[in-house]
Amino acid sequence: MVRSMFKLFLVVAGGCLIPGLFGGVWAGPPLTTPEGLGGVALNPMAYVANPAKDGKGANKQVVGYPQIGVWKINFYQNKPGPIGRIDWTAMGATISFFNRFEVGYARENVDIDNIQNVGVDNLAFKVALVKEGAFDIKHFPAISVGVIAKETNFNGAKHKRSVDYYVVGTKTISSLPLPLVINAGLRVTKGVVRGVLGFGNDQDTIFFGNIEAVVFKKFIIGWEFQDAVDAGNGYKTHSMWEAHIAYMPNPKLTLVGSLGYVGDHKESGNAFGKAFVLSLQYAF
């Protein structure tokens, strides 16, 4: 189902922007995440990825240019444990419409030593409900809602398909010496390890949040968190965080390096230790 919808997405489609900082638009969040939506590494943001600006776009203000993201995530601490090394790669693309709607797709491949090379398809939709500064309130955040249709081929999955839902608010504070982007939201999910290992019977509502600081226009440093998931009947995912630095050599390209942490794998069966993360993002 998800792959069929991806073919439709490719026909329609044929990012990474923080708007308005320092009087210009540079590459940066929202990135195209491993799940194929506009956000950072773990979490969605309320902004749509790579929106059309100043009449520029594939069809002026109607369609924005596509944005692609490639991810390489390596959980090295599990080796030589019972699970073994985990090599996680992802490639996704997003495109926006009317600067209010976002559609994206990503394919994740998770090679788990001693178990299976797992493939996950993600098809994501986002709607920007409220623009930043709405109602003539300067500090009012942008607010968006979204869905992520997910499908895994993990042999041991209780359920192989499910849909996640989220609501998120994002605010850029540009009046500080270092401009900040504050991001927080709630996600409803049944996913076990973000759906890689399938889906449980029970939905859990979890908190997620980010803080990003823009340094010298071309650098972003940030931290993000996602709460633990209990999908019922013992199907759980440990809470996770990651700290990152992004370099933007030009308005289209972003390079990201990150250190992630998903609990102490020696103390919990649903934890995977530390991870090194690399990403390349390109906004057309």
Which descriptors apply to this entry?
single chain, 284 residues, mainly beta, Porin, twelve-stranded antiparallel β-barrel, two-stranded antiparallel sheet, 1 helix, 54% strand, globular, disordered N terminus
Lay out the secondary structure.
Blueprint: H1 2-13, E1 17-18, E2 26-27, E3 31-32, E4 38-39, E5 58-61, E6 67-75, E7 86-97, E8 101-112, E9 116-130, E10 142-152, E11 161-173, E12 180-191, E13 199-215, E14 219-226, E15 229-230, E16 236-237, E17 240-247, E18 253-262, E19 273-283
Antiparallel strand pairs: 1-2, 3-4, 6-7, 6-19, 7-8, 8-9, 9-10, 10-11, 11-12, 12-13, 13-14, 14-17, 15-16, 17-18, 18-19
Order of strands in the sheet with the most strands? 6-7-8-9-10-11-12-13-14-17-18-19
Tell me the CATH architecture: Beta Barrel
Task: Please indicate the count of domains.
Answer: 1
Helix/strand structural class: mainly beta
Q: According to CATH, what is the topology?
A: Porin
Q: Count the strands?
A: 19
**Shape annotation:** globular
Helix content: under 10%
Task: Report strand %.
Answer: over 45%
Question: Which sequence of SSEs, written as H and E, runs from N to C?
Answer: HEEEEEEEEEEEEEEEEEEE
- From the alpha-carbon coordinates, what is the Rg to the nearest angstrom? 18 Å
Mean pLDDT: 85
Report, as a whole number of angstroms, the end-to-end distance: 28 Å
